[in-house]
Amino acid sequence: MLKKACLAIISVFFLLSAKAQSADSVYNQYLNFNLARFQGQQDQALVLGENLIPLAGKLPEKARVSFYFSIGKLYEDDSQPDKALPLYEKVAAAAPDYYVVHRALGYLYLDKARVIEDKINLAANDKTNADTLRAAYTKLVQKILPHLEKAQACDPSDDTLDIIKTLYKKINDTQGLATLDDRLKQLARSCIDVLNDI
C-alpha cells in the first residue's frame, strides 16, 4: 500500500514538473518571438508566432493577450487580415478598453464592408442579390460601429468620426447617429493604450 502511494506521489510530481517545463518552454518561445519582432525580423517573428499560436493557452493571461495582439499586427502588416481578425477579437474580448485593437478591428472590418458595398453597386439590377448583400452589409456595419466608436472615444480623429457618421447614414440608423455623442462620452471614461504582458 505504501509503495503504491509513493508511486502515485512520484507520478504526480513528474507530471507537474513536465507541465511546468512545458509552460517555461512556451514562455521562452514567446520571448524569442518578441525578440525577433523588436529586432525587425518580421518574417522570423511571423514563423515563431505561428508556431506559438497553438501553445498560447500555456502563456500567462497578460502575455497571451499581448501575444495575440502582436501576432495579429504582424498578420495585418503582412496583408493577411483574415488571420489577424480572430486574434484581434480575442484581444478585444480580454481587454475591452484597449482602444488600439478596436481601431484595428473597425478598419479591417470596414475594408470588408467596402467590398460588399461594391458588390451591392454591381448587383443593382438583381434585386434579390442586392437585398441579400444589403443585409450582410448592414450586419457588418453594426459590427464595425462599436469598434470605431471605442477608438474614437479614446483617441478622437476627424476621419474616424466622419466614417462613423457616414456608416450610420448608410444603414439609415438615425437613432444610433442621434445618440452617438452620449455614447462617445461614456466610452471615453475607460481607455487603455498599452497592453502589459507582465
Q: How far do the termini sit from each other? A: 45 Å
**Rg result:** 22 Å
Mass-distribution shape = globular
The count of β-strands is 0
Name the helix and strand elements from N-terminus to C-terminus, one letter apiece: HHHHHHHHH
* Mean of all residue-level pLDDT scores: 89
Helical region count? Answer: 9
Largest beta sheet, briefly? none
Contiguous runs where pLDDT drops below 50 for at least 5 residues: 2-21
- The chain-level structural class is mainly alpha
Q: Strand content of the residues, in percent?
A: under 5%
Give the % helix.
over 70%
Q: What can you tell me about this protein's structure?
A:
Helices cover 79% and strands 0% of the residues. It is mainly α and 198 residues long. The protein has helices at residues 2-38, 42-52, 61-77, 81-94, 99-122, 127-154, 158-170, 174-178, 180-187. The model is unreliable at 2-21 (pLDDT under 50). Helix 1 packs antiparallel against helix 2 and helix 2 crosses helix 3 (61-77).
Notable traits:
single chain
What is the topological layout?
Elements: H1 2-38, H2 42-52, H3 61-77, H4 81-94, H5 99-122, H6 127-154, H7 158-170, H8 174-178, H9 180-187
Question: What's a concise summary of this model?
Answer:
The chain is an all-alpha fold and 198 residues long. It has nine helices and no strands.
